[in-house]
């Protein structure tokens, strides 16, 4: 009866309030609320209990009689000591023990009522439970009222969405849709599934060019109804509404339930303190959520402006919020930056633009966008990969070329370029980034599955203790059964610490704050603990490990100009024929020597000036640093598509570009070379790219072609091959633009090799050394040449400089072979040996190119050890994803660092993706200051300001000081991630161009991981001790006072607060933290420490019991009265809590030591010192205030203090021994 559909990572089920009585359609009706599964059973249970309350005698009345008899016997036995006291005690016990049938059934009714409330709350907590209880699955969408949506992990929770049934005005057919995370899903009757609403866009270029937008009012109206407006609507709920939602969370309800349980034990102050702490924390969470929503709303409220749109066969102006997918719009660079922002995702139909995509990718390098009309390929348009034609919403237009007249549409009035709206609102790339920030709200834990198993492990102990308590308690006829059941429940609830989510949130929030201070922004906080588990760190090379400021060393193997007066040789004549367009002859000099670019043949200068993608913006040349360096080396002035010689009358105009892509590894242009003021013209095809890619495109390949480029590549230089040819100048410009790329890039004359020096970033070597020395495998994944990449890898010590480097090569008729860099060593590729890569890596460095990568990825025998390959070269963006996927497949935790454009797929594939943006250097991070340090610093700054401004008036001095203090306070606040700070490419974004931020993320991740694990460990020990205290000690009547409980609660809260604020060490440890919560080390340490605490507790209780007279023994189920046993239990419990925190605080090598974490050290020292003072009775008045009675003798006093010391020292020894045993 259900429909389970998976589409776009969404699992969808249909539900309705309809229940079937018969199999006929007309017999179906709405399900009444009384028919919900959690209504009728509870009603029947209420009726049954009320019936028993009035009719059935109390089933355990004999127990009361037995209690009376035993009480009488006890009274007779103790009359000889004190008749008056015994009689009074007996009557009190009878009063507390006697439990009538009315009380018993009222108790059961209250229990049922509590379960009923929990059942109703579960409808808010669990979508599956609500569907089971209140809804019925149906076979037809037309019958459904709700749909259950299960998103992919980390992008929100399961949701029950309302289905809207409407009539499609265009087809007059019924349609059903729902909204999930601000996106609309409609039901496709043909596919029988819900699909994301999107525009049906043609893929053939001819069809796209004929697009005319909305030419009828009917189609326009239907689209308005279907797509809605182009806006980001983010509602801001009221504080109380959001607080109510927060208060309905399972853990908060559980926390309040625990407080109510303790209140029944008459712990008034303890319960008030705990409740105040919970309510305050939830209020701060709500305020933070409101601030985040407001920040997100401010980001989303992009300024609207009038824009021309082609509707109903004419151009008209509308507001940008009214744009619909399918509209044809005119895009121009506006008067202001706000009016130059693309309002949605657009496909360029005519004209051209240069855009800055920093708002999305974080990269500020402008990108060319060319119209679909200029597309040379006849292949269908791929909207995912053909990004050269798509302008994304939120990007800024820095330059535009007016549209030419198309087949169907007139030129726009504002002379803009014509574009076709693809996606609007939250469906755009900008909307996707905003949804990532908004809905990535998963609770942050170190490992959800392991956390659950850990709590199950503790629950086993709690259930055992609860069963023991119930069995022993039910045998005692003097014991209150109400109190017995209450304590059984308290034992079980003590295992799940109610403060757990609060403490985990504090730890992760502090990590987020620390990263923001370092210029690192995170949109998916759940990945911070994952950074602590990383064992394989992958880096892109160009722009990540090396700088973008390339230096042109010269041109190798290039023709060089010779004076025309020199007597020409036969070779000169041949070279002259090859470059007949030049005004001078050219000759090839030593191919291995580097020639300055200005000294080469003129045609090479034409090539450098006419084959680029640089843009002139406000008189400044911006674009690829490699092309900028090339143009600076020749005497040409570039103004976008036109370049002119500074000394000669030569102008080069680019007619058409075939842009560079990572897959093709080359670019080419068609350019018009105008000489002598227009008297001489020539049409040329220019190309440049990877040497091995351009080689098949050359007409004549020089004999030393491979030797030359390999030599410079081995030296670490970046090498580009140049090619050119003269084309038919008779062709019209439009014909030239329509020339296929394959024709342009064939039959080229060789123009030499451009040799660039790629300097390493100043901190690259330091960062790699830190990561390598901290138990990480370092891998370089680049699109650059294998030889260049291997040289850089050795410079950075990614490869061992003393070991030979082998590159996997595919040789004709020989298959795959490992060949050394100098080609002196060859080893066969053994695809049948599982340890082939492992054996090779012992004595060699390994490099695999994109051409040979499939030989390993498609071989299930050897691919397990792919992570031992240090360098992957000449790989495409898709292959980068496959490499990361392989690492993850074999249980490696991966980090990928790269730029925000070419490496998007790999950054998303990694567990921790870091987009390193070249936005300059971030200022050094400011350390977190304590209150005293802040006050001292502000006083010093005030004094400096006063000294600098002695000549100013009093009012000016006060205003300046106030401004400075406001700036200081603002720097201490943490704002939400902004769109310009976060990159759509990766969950982590570094605004610095340095590599060191990668180490900051790992340091913070390790600190957070260790912090969360030690929180679990401390809470586990406290829970186990609490389970024992609430069970076994309760049987002996032991309980603590209200003041004592409040002090213990404050201790735990403060210690956890100070643990969560621990900072990582500056130096990365040479080992990784234990990535598993459920590990032998963790279990053994917990069990042994618990055994020690238990032994100390039993010992001190036995010693106190020996010294306690019968008259002073704790009374069962009575109110708290200070006695020796209670006093001893409080002191030893307090000491055990201190020992648990002090011993299990990890500190070095991942975070601050206990000595360095001053607040935690002072807190634990103060509490332990207080315990010592109380145990030694140094201040009797303090003991009395803490509800402790005087100790009977010095022996017990010394035993108490000695037990506290033994517990602390013993726990310390156990932890150190376990750490040593499982150090690996």
TrEMBL record:
It is a multi-pass membrane protein. It comes from the Eukaryota. Residues 928-982 form a coiled coil. PROSITE patterns: ATPASE_E1_E2 (PS00154). GO terms for cellular component: endoplasmic reticulum membrane. One of its GO terms (molecular function) is P-type ion transporter activity. It is found in: Membrane. Residues 69-90 have a biased composition (Low complexity). Keywords: ATP-binding, Coiled coil, Magnesium, Membrane, Metal-binding, Nucleotide-binding, Translocase, Transmembrane, Transmembrane helix. Residues 309-436 form the P-type ATPase A domain. Residues 69-94, 561-584 are annotated as: Disordered. The chain crosses the membrane at residues 33-54, 270-290, 452-471, 1015-1035, 1047-1065, 1077-1101, 1160-1179, 1199-1218. GO terms for biological process: intracellular calcium ion homeostasis. Belongs to the cation transport ATPase (P-type) (TC 3.A.3) family. Type V subfamily. This is Cation-transporting ATPase. It comes from Cavenderia fasciculata. The lineage of its organism: Eukaryota, Amoebozoa, Evosea, Eumycetozoa, Dictyostelia. The gene is ctaA.
């Amino acid at each position: 009866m259900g429909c389970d559909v998976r589409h776009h990572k969404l699992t969808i089920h249909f539900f309705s309030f309809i229940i079937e009585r018969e199999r006929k359609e007309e017999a179906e009706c709405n399900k009444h609320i009384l028919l919900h599964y959690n209504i009728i059973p509870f009603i029947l249970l209420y009726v049954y209990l009320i019936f028993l309350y009035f009719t059935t005698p109390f089933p355990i009345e004999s127990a009361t009689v037995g209690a009376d008899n035993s009480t009488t016997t006890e009274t007779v036995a103790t009359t000889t000591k004190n008749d008056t006291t015994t009689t009074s005690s007996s009557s009190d016990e009878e009063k507390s023990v006697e439990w009538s049938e009315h009380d018993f059934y009222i108790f059961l009714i209250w229990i049922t009522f509590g379960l009923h409330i929990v059942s109703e709350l579960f409808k808010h907590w669990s979508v599956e439970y609500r569907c089971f209880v209140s809804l019925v699955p149906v076979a037809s969408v037309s019958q459904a009222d709700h749909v259950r949506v299960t998103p992919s992990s980390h992008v929100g929770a399961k949701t029950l969405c309302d289905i809207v049934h409407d009539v499609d005005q265009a087809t007059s057919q019924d349609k059903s849709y729902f909204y999930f995370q601000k996106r609309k899903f409609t039901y496709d009757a043909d596919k029988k599934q819900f699909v994301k609403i999107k525009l049906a866009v043609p893929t053939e270029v001819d069809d796209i060019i004929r697009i005319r937008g909305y030419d009828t009012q009917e189609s326009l109206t239907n689209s308005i109804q279907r797509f809605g407006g182009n806006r980001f609507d983010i509602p801001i709920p009221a504080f109380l509404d959001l607080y109510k939602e927060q208060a309905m969370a399972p853990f908060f309800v559980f926390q309040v339930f625990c407080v109510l349980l303790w209140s029944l034990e008459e712990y008034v102050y303890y319960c008030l303190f705990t409740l105040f702490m919970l309510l305050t924390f939830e209020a701060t969470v709500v305020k933070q959520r409101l601030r985040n929503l407001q920040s997100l709303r401010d980001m989303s409220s992009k300024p609207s402006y009038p824009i021309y749109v082609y509707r109903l066969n004419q151009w008209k102006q509308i507001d940008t919020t009214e744009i619909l997918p399918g509209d044809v719009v005119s895009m121009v660079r506006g008067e202001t930056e706000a009016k130059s922002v693309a309002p949605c995702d657009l496909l360029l139909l005519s004209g051209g633009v240069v855009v800055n995509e920093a708002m999305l990718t974080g990269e500020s390098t402008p990108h060319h966008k060319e119209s679909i009309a200029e597309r040379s390929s006849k292949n269908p348009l791929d909207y995912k990969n053909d990004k050269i034609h798509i302008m994304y919403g939120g990007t800024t237009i820095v330059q535009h070329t007016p549209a030419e007249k198309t087949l169907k549409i007139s030129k726009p009035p504002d002379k803009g370029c014509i574009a076709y709206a693809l996606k609007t609102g939250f469906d755009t790339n900008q909307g996707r980034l905003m949804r990532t920030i908004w809905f990535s709200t998963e609770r942050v834990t170190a490992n959800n599955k392991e956390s659950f198993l850990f709590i199950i492990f503790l629950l086993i102990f709690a259930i055992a203790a609860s069963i023991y308590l119930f069995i022993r308690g039910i045998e005692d006829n003097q014991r209150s059964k109400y109190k017995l059941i209450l304590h059984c429940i308290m034992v079980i609830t003590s295992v799940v610490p109610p403060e757990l989510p609060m403490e985990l949130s504090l730890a992760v929030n502090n990590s987020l704050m620390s990263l923001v201070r370092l210029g690192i922004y995170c949109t998916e906080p759940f990945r911070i603990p994952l950074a602590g588990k990383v064992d394989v760190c992958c880096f892109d090379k160009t722009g990540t490990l090396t700088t973008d400021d390339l230096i042109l060393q010269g041109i190798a193997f290039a023709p060089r100009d010779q004076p025309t007066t020199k007597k020409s040789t036969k070779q000169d004549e041949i070279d002259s024929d090859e470059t007949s367009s030049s005004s001078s002859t050219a000759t090839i000099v030593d191919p291995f020597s580097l020639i300055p670019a200005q000294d080469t043949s003129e045609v090479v200068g034409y090539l450098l000036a006419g084959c680029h993608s640089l843009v002139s913006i406000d008189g400044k040349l911006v674009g690829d640093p490699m092309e900028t360096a090339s143009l600076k080396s020749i005497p040409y002035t570039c103004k976008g598509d036109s370049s002119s010689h500074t000394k000669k009358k030569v102008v080069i105009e680019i007619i058409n570009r075939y842009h560079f892509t990572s897959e093709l590894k080359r670019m080419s242009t068609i350019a018009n070379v105008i000489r002598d003021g227009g008297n001489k013209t020539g049409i040329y095809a220019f190309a440049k790219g990877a040497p091995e890619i351009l080689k098949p495109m050359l007409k004549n390949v020089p004999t030393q072609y491979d030797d030359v480029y390999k030599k410079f590549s081995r030296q670490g230089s970046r090498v580009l091959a140049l090619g050119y040819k003269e084309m038919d100048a008779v062709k019209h410009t439009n014909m030239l633009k329509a020339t296929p790329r394959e024709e342009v890039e064939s039959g080229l004359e060789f123009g030499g090799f451009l040799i660039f020096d790629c300097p390493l970033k100043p901190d690259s070597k330091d960062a790699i050394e830190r990561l390598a020395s901290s138990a990480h495998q370092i891998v370089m994944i680049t699109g650059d040449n294998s030889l260049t990449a291997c040289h850089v890898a050795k410079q950075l010590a990614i490869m061992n400089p003393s070991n030979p480097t082998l590159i996997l090569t595919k040789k004709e008729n020989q298959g795959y072979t490992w060949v050394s860099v100098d080609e002196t060593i060859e080893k066969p590729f053994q695809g049948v040996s599982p340890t082939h890569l492992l054996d090779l890596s012992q004595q060699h460095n390994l490099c695999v190119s994109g051409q040979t990568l499939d030989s390993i990825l498609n071989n299930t025998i050897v691919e397990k050890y792919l992570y031992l390959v240090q360098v992957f070269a000449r790989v495409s963006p898709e292959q980068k994803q496959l490499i990361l996927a392989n690492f993850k497949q074999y249980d490696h935790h991966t980090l990928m660092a790269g730029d925000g454009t070419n490496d998007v797929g790999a950054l998303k594939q990694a567990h921790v993706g870091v987009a390193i943006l070249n936005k300059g250097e971030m200022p050094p991070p400011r350390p977190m200051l304590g209150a005293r340090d802040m006050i001292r610093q502000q006083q010093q700054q005030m004094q400096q300001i006063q000294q600098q401004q002695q000549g100013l008036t009093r009012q000016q001095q006060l205003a300046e000081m106030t401004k400075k203090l406001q700036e200081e306070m603002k720097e201490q606040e943490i704002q939400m991630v902004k769109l310009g700070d976060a990159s759509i490419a990766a969950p982590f974004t570094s605004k610095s161009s340095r590599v060191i931020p990668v180490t900051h993320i790992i340091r913070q991740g390790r600190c957070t991981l260790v912090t969360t694990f030690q929180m679990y460990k401390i809470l586990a020990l406290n829970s186990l001790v609490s389970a024992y205290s609430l069970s076994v000690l309760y049987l002996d009547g032991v309980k603590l006072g209200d003041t004592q409980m409040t002090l213990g609660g404050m201790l735990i809260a403060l210690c956890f607060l100070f643990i969560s604020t621990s900072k990582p060490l500056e130096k990365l440890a040479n080992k990784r933290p234990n990535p598993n919560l459920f590990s032998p080390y963790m279990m053994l340490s917990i069990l042994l420490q618990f055994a020690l605490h238990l032994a100390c507790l039993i010992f001190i209780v036995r010693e106190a019991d020996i010294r306690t007279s019968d008259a002073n023994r704790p009374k069962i189920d009575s109110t708290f009265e200070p006695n020796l046993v209670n006093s001893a239990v409080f002191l030893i419990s307090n000491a055990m809590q201190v020992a648990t925190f002090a011993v299990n605080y990890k500190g070095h090598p991942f975070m601050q030591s206990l000595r360095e974490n001053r607040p935690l050290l002072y807190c634990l020292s103060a509490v332990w010192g207080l315990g010592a003072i109380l145990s030694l009775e140094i201040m009797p008045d303090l003991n009395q205030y803490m509800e402790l009675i005087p100790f009977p003798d010095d022996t017990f006093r010394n035993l108490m203090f000695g037990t506290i010391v033994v517990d602390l020292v013993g726990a310390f020894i156990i932890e150190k021994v376990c750490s040593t045993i499982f150090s690996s």
